Amino acid sequence: MWYSFCRFSNSGIAVYELVIAGGWLMLPIILSSVVMIAIAIERYWSLRPSKVVPPTLLGQVWHWLKQNQLTKENIHELRGSSALGSILAAGISNSGHGREVMKDSIEEAAVQVVHSLEKHLVPLGTIAAVTPLLGLLGTVIGMIKVFTAIMIEGTGNAGVLAGGISEALITTAAGLSVAIPALIIHKYFERRVDSLVVEMEDQAIKLIDALHGDRVFRQDETQSKEVAAA
To answer: How far apart are alpha carbons 230 and 220 in whole angstroms?
Structure first.
């Protein structure tokens, strides 16, 4: 245990030394990595398919409609239950005004829902774009220090030269180490949002067609999706 503790302590000291050697630009790079991790955790939790598009929600709504149990309280509960619930509630509230009005109300609600689903993805993309530039800036600053040292002291002082070169390389590596996973995570959540939007659009179209006579809604459609999701 003592050996493991010593190794852990030495590793911490080594990381600290790398951060110090990288210069002040390591601070925004580290802060960017913390923000990236926080956004990734929050979006992973918020964009769960079972939370955004509950598999049994459309079936429940259709059951309320068939049994004439859809009250204002149910619509209010539906609107706050999930992203899909918010879209369906907007459509149901305007279903009596015709198919086109119902469709327009669903599209308006969908714009707000998609905006909420894409929350924090822009900062994540910004981190993916900016951190390599911070690393590049650190590289330029480090090389400026190297050439300045050469101009002042010549090539005899190897310590000064090594310090400038290490600062250049460390910031570049740190910037790329944050930018690459940030870019991957950003693309992953963009794809998840697109998939969720397609699924919500499909559910909304089913409700519109069922309410306006173009489609006979089948309860087993939702049940089969629930089995597939499980």
So the answer is: 15
